[in-house]
Structures are given as structure tokens and as C-alpha cells.
Amino acid sequence: MGVWPLTSLIGFEDYGPDCDSMRITAFLDIPGQDNLTPLARLEKYAFSENIFNRQIIARGLLDVFRDFSNNEEDFLTVMEIVVRLSEDAEPTVRTELMEQIPPIAIFLQESRPNFPTAFSDYLMPIVVRYLTDPNNQVRKASQEALLILLEQELIAQNDIENKVCPILLDLSAPDSDDEYKVEAVNIICKMASMLSKTVVERMLLPRFCELCGDGKLFQVRKVCAASFGDICNAVGQEATERFLIPKFFELCSDSVWGMRKACAECFMAVSYTTSPEVRRSKLSPLFINLISDPCRWVRQAAFQSLGPFISTFANPSSAGLYIREDGTLREGEKGGGKCIETTGETKANPLICVEIPRTDLLKEGSNSCGSPGEALARLSQNDNTTACVIEGIKDCHVSNCRGMNSRFQSAEDVFNTFLYWRPPLPDISQDLELLQSKTEKHEEGCSVSKAICNNCVASSEIKKVLESLQEHMDDPDVQGKKKEQHHNPPIEDDKSKLQDIIPQPLLDQYLSMTDPARAQTVDTEIAKHCAYSLPGVALTLGRQNWHCLKDTYETLAADVQWKVRRTLAFSIHELAVILGDQLTAADLVPIFNGFLKDLDEVRIGVLKHLYDFLKLLHADKRREYLYQLQEFVVTDNSRNWRFRYELAEQLILILELYNPNDVYDYLRHIALTLCSDKVSEVRWISFKLVVAILQKFYANNANALGLNLINELVARFRHCSKWIGRQAFAFICQALVEEECMPVDHFVEHLLPSLLSLASDPVPNVRVLLAKALRQTLLEKAYFKSVGNPHLEAVEETVLALQSDRDQDVSFFASVKPKLNNMDTTSLEKQN
Fold it and tell me: How many CB atoms lie within 10 A of CB 416?
């Protein structure tokens, strides 16, 4: 056929990716010398000998369908042309065609009622056929198109089961080509989350399990390992524990370190889909294996996943904290169990009860009363389940509890200073048998009404788990510590790190992440990963076990790397929610104070959530920070204007935490200082801060403070020698009227005369804002619209004068109606 004769006529030589507004197939509408109809011309160029012609047709298929979709006969003709074009011998044409199928499918779904049938009969076979195309680019385009179609739910369930899955199973068969197999496995893993659970479990899961043990290609196993968490999430808990966990064990012990590293990276996702029993008894020892892996890269990935893995042990019902949809924490309702507090003469051997919901007891299957550092006695009385933490000296005798006066209390009362500041718990594991033998006497010694102690034996299950985990503690660093502890017996403080929420070896490994030796043998940024996941670990352990993390948190807060301290600064407000007000005041406030004096890179983390942290403190403690807020105005680098912008935003929120007198004495000065900042963005947000301060004064009937601030605004901004200050005065006045922050009579008496006097200002930028304030705000208020208003005449005269102003912008804004004005004040100032 030769070269396309219309190319020079319509300018396709200039076609490029930026020509979005141009219809690629516009040439079909241009009458040429061939006297063909547009549809015939389409067919002519679609099968031209010129490759470029065919590429243009393939690239413009969406426009073609838009033009011919109204007529059923033409539509079917176009579909047949597309099917023929899909068999083109040129790979670039096939690639262009495949890239257009997702947008074509979306268009047809919206415009044609018989979309499912047309798509299934004509387009879906092309997508499936291209998955086996010999050209790599064509296959890649078809894979991307398939995933988009699945994500948009454009493929019928019947096509998924009868067309898509069979071809993927064929491509991933043991005798398939290696390159095709790797691509098929990748698609299977990606599409698992888009299909129904039954389809994945019935059609794809067996092949996935088979591929996990592929001994020929490690690339296949690596793809399976990297996507293991997604597959577990797609099939659910039952299938995961029955079919996938055994395969996961095999991958975690693979001879190729890349496989073990991929398993460590997805460990949290796998853990989420298992039961607490499997998580504790099977996955925990497996994870310890990865942490002590001989390959440094595997250990590095494992330590990075350690905190997230620990977080999967979290139980909201026991922690009392739940995560909202926006990701923030909230206090939840506690369980039904009640706690017993001892008083009076039982100081020698107190029984401190910590609430443990009955659901946890059923899940963990533990009815014990002990762990290596503390004895837990689980008492069953009717439907209330409690756990008594027995503490005292080593010769603890339950009979000493005679005369104990107990009372029921709420869960909040459990977290008292005595519970958290008691001496470290002694090792009384040798007395467990004694406690068991005297369980029957417990009823006589304790005056708990009708309480019957049936069992007080140590949980054999937990003991077995701890013993099995200890067998895997072969990390060189851990072995070194064991030798050191053999020569130097552990001090009593080490026993305070014991808990029963997660397997103790996991916590020990997490606490060791602050060890300087870890930075040398594992990862130089291991402390940063520890700091990043610490809130999740704290949430998992609960505030009752904060003593396990306190020393680690203080070590991280004093780390020499500012990135570690910055990470803690950004999350300290969330940790405060987890710990509650008492522990926050005791342990977090000193660290928070240190962050306030740190580098700007650290201080910004505190500043971004300053309001969230201060609102958790008691009023007297919160008031101590009023003077320190002024330190935020000074930064290490004066050009760091975003720091001051963030300060102004936070101060707007913080206003509600303080009374009007404190706001006037401390925050007013900061606001006025920021109003004079060199950076425009900081000034404009600061003007809103001043308006919020005035609103607080008048809302709390502190009119005298409001009047003092108004007089200061007039003196500082209305009579400012720089036009920027006078412009700011006009903006503040407009905002005060818009937000109705103060009584109208106060405004017209103290601010309106100064505002109107700006009409004679020599700078047009000032008069522009005055025109906007008067025309768009004041004259729209009912007060100024009322007939006989004594101030209305003065305002209207000023507006008329501005309408005849020599500056066009001033006259425009003085005349334009409010609803027609969409210009932003900040943008206007930037233009000026």
C-alpha cells in the first residue's frame, strides 16, 4: 500500500504523549481520494503494510469505539477488526493494542448493556492469549492489563475460573518454560487478593503450595516467599494453618538466604492469619531461628520485622485500647472481670490483681499461676475471671493473707503507683509446688466472698514454649551474653523484664536491639527500627508491662543518632495514650522535655503532635509548658519557615487547653511575633491564630483581654510603617467579621473606624484587601444591611470611593459581587 497518504495532511508526525486533546483517529472523518466510509477506512489502515499506520489504529481504539458504539452492526464490525488486529505479526502493534483494552473495557461497561458478553467473547480471549505471547513486552502488557481488569472487577467469575486460572496453571506447571513459570507465579500471587476465597483455595492454593517447593528455580520460591502473606490473607486462617504453614517452615529453612530473608519480611502478615496458639507455639520458635540466622541480611530483615511480629500478639480486650478507622488509639470498654485490691495489714505479701479477660484464657488455654518471675493464680468465681499477681519475699506463704480486706474496683484503679513502683519481683519459681499444695488453704486466708481456688499450677504449655524457644537462642551475640551472665549472675532488675503476653525470648531479642554490638553485627540502623516499632510493642504488652520497655525507651531517647530520637518524637503522643496519664507524667514527660531542646529535626516531631500530647497531661502539668512554647519560635536555621508555620497551626489547637489569662500572658506574644514573620505563609496562618485568640477571649467573657489585644493590633498593624502590616490589619478585621468572633458593637466601635481609614492608604495592595473586606464581608452581614444603621452610610461611602479608585484591582473588588469572587487572599498577596 505504501506510505500513508494522509500523514502530512493531519500532522501525525507531530503526535506525541502530550497530545491528549487530539483524537488519534480523526483521520477517519476526513474525506479523502479513496471515497471510503470511516469504517472502511478504519479497516484499510488497520491492515496496512505500514507498521506506523497499524500502531496508530491500535493506539486510537478507544476513540474508535466511542465513534461506532451507538450502532450495533458497526460495533460488531469494529470488534472483529480488533480481533484480527490482535494477530498482527508486529510486537509493537500487539503491545499498543493490549494497553488499550482496560480503558476500552471501562468505557464499554459504562455505555453498553451487553458489556459482559461482548467483552468475554471478543476481548478476554486476546488478554489470555497474550499471556503466552513469545514477545516479552507483549506478555508484560497483558499481565498488567489482566491485573487492572481484575482490580476493576471487569472480568466475569466464569471467565476467571474457565479462562484465566487454567492458563496460569498451565504456565506454572512443572514442565513449563522457566521464564513463563516465574511470570505466572507472580500473577497468581498478585491476583490472589482480588479473587474470592473459594476460588483461590480451590484452584490456586494447591499449585502455590507445589511451587513453594520448586527445587529447580529459586526465583519461583522467592516470589512465593515474598507473597506468602498475601496468599495467607486470601485463603484465611484454616487453610493457612493446614496447608501453608508447613510450606512456610520449609521456605524459612531454605538453603538460599534470599528465601529466608523474604520470609522474615512477610512474617507479620503470615502471623496475622494464624490463631494465637499457632502464633505462640510454632511461629515464635521459627522467628527466633531467623533472628539467629548465620546470614547477616536475614538477621537484619528479621530484626526489622520483630516489632511488627510482636504487635500481632496484641489483644485489644486486655489492653483496653482500640484503633479507630483514622489510625488513632482510643480507650475501649474493659472486660467483665473485676480486680481485687488488698489494703491494710497485707503489705508483706499483697495480692495485686490484674484483669485478664476470659476469652484470653480460653485462647491461650492456660490456667496457671506462674512464670519464671511471678506467680499467677487464676481464680474462677462464677463468671468473673481474675489473675492475681503474687509478689513478696521468697518465703511467701499464702496463709499470711489472713485478715485481708479486699474490695472490687474498676480497671483504672489497678494502675496505681504502688503497682508500678514496687521493688523488682523476686524469683519464687521454686515455691510453685508449695503454692499448689496450699491452694485449698487459700480460701481460708483470703476474705474474698465465696471465692474458690480450684487450680494454681504453672502452665505447662507456656513452659514448653519457653524451653523450645531457648533451644534456638544460638545467635553469637546472645551466646556471648549467656557466657557473661554465667560469670556474673543476673541482678534482680532483670526479673522486672518478665511478662506473659508474648514469648519471653521475643521480648529479650527486641530489648537487645539497643545493644551497640547489634549495630556492628546486624544493622547500623537497628536502633531506629526498634524506636519505630516501640509503640506497637508497648500496645501489645499493655501499660501493666511498661516496666519491661522503660529502660529501652530511655536508651533510645538518649541515642546519639538524631534519626532515632526523631522517630520517638513523632510517636511520643501515641505512647502517652497507651500508657495513661500517670505513667506519662512519670516516664514520658522528662523525655518530652529533652526533645524540646533537641535539634530541629527532632523538635518538629514533638511540635507536629504538641496538642495531642499536652491534652493528655493534667492541667497543672500542662501549664508548665506555657513558657517553653516560646522556645519554638527560635530555630537552628531561620530559613526553616515550615517549623514556625507548624507552630502557628498547633497553637490554634492548643488554645482550648488554657484559660484566657494564660493565653493572653503567654500565647498572645508568640502569635504577634509570628504575624511579623519574614515568610508570607507563616504570617497568614498567624493572622488566623490571632483571630482564634480573640474568639476565645469573647467566648469566655474575657472582654477586657479582647479589648487590650484589639488596641495592640491597631497600634502594631494599622499604624505600621510597612504596607504588609496594614494589609494584615484589613485581613484580620475581615476574618473577625466572617467568623463572628466578637460582638458587632465592639467591632464597629473599636475596629471599624481604623479599618475605613485605610481607604486613603497609598499602597494599592492594602486598598484591595480593604475593598474585599467591605464588599464581600461587612455589607453581607445582616447588621449592616438593616435600615437606619448609623455605620452603614460610612461603609457605603468608602465602598463608592474604592469603586472609583485609580487602581483597576481595587475598583474591581469594590464592585464585584461576593459569589463571583473565587480568588484566594493568600494567592493575591503572593501575586502582589
Answer: 13
pTM: 0.71
C-beta of residue 147 within 8 angstroms of C-beta of residue 191:
yes
3-state secondary structure string across 373-431? CEEEEEEEECCEEEEEEECCCCCCCHHHHCCEEEEEECHHHHCCHHHHHCCCCCCCHHH
- Write out the H or E segment, with its range, that includes residue 340: strand 339-343
Closest to 190 (Cα-Cα) out of 253, 128, 251, 148: 148
Angle, helix 562-583 to helix 526-541, in steps of 10 degrees: 20
10 Å Cβ neighbour count for 517? Answer: 12
Instruction: Name the nearest CA neighbour of 105 among 150, 67, 141, 139.
Output: 150
Whether the predicted pLDDT of 159 surpasses 70: yes
More confident residue, 689 or 320: 689
Q: Which three cell numbers stand for residue 735?
A: 476574618
Contact 488, 453 (CB under 8 A): no
pLDDT at 118: 86
At 143, the pLDDT band (50, 70, 90 cuts) reads: very high
Query: Are 453 and 387 contacting, i.e. CB atoms less than 8 angstroms apart?
Result: no
3-state secondary structure of 555: helix
Rounded to whole angstroms, the Cα distance separating 218 from 226 reads 12
> Which positions ≥6 away from 121 have C-beta within 8 Å?
none
Say if CB 290 and CB 264 are below 8 A apart: yes
Contact yes or no for 151/192 (Cβ under 8 A): no
Closest among 263, 290, 291, 293 to 513, alpha carbons compared: 291
Q: Which single residue is written with the C-alpha cell 481595587?
A: 810
Question: Is 407 a residue whose pLDDT tops 50?
Answer: no
pLDDT above 80 for 195 = yes
Place of cell 465592639: 746
Confidence of residue 780 (pLDDT cuts 50, 70, 90): confident
> Pick from 90, 32, 102: which is nearest to 56 by CA?
90
Burial class (CB in 10 A: 0-12, 13-18, 19+), 786: exposed
- Beta-bridged to residue 331, according to DSSP, are 321
Nearest to 770 by CA among 807, 733, 720: 733
How confident is the model at residue 818, as a pLDDT? Answer: 59
Q: How far is residue 38 from each of residues 7, 30, 93, 292, 566, measured CA to CA in Å? A: 16, 8, 21, 70, 65
Q: pLDDT grade, residue 625 (50/70/90)?
A: very high
Do residues 243 and 202 lie in contact, with contact meaning Cβ atoms separated by under 8 Å? no
Residue 338 reports pLDDT greater than 70: no
> pLDDT tens across 703-729, in order?
999 999 999 999 999 999 999 999 999
Rounded to 5 degrees, what angle do the CA atoms 443, 448, 453 make?
A: 40
Express each pLDDT in 659-682 by its tens digit. 999 999 999 999 999 999 999 999
CB atoms within 10 A of CB 679: 16
Q: Is 767 in a helix, a strand, or coil?
A: helix
- The amino acid present at 507, given as its one-letter code, is L
Helices (H) and strands (E) in the chain, counts: 52, 7
Cα 450 from Cα 358, distance rounded (Å):
19
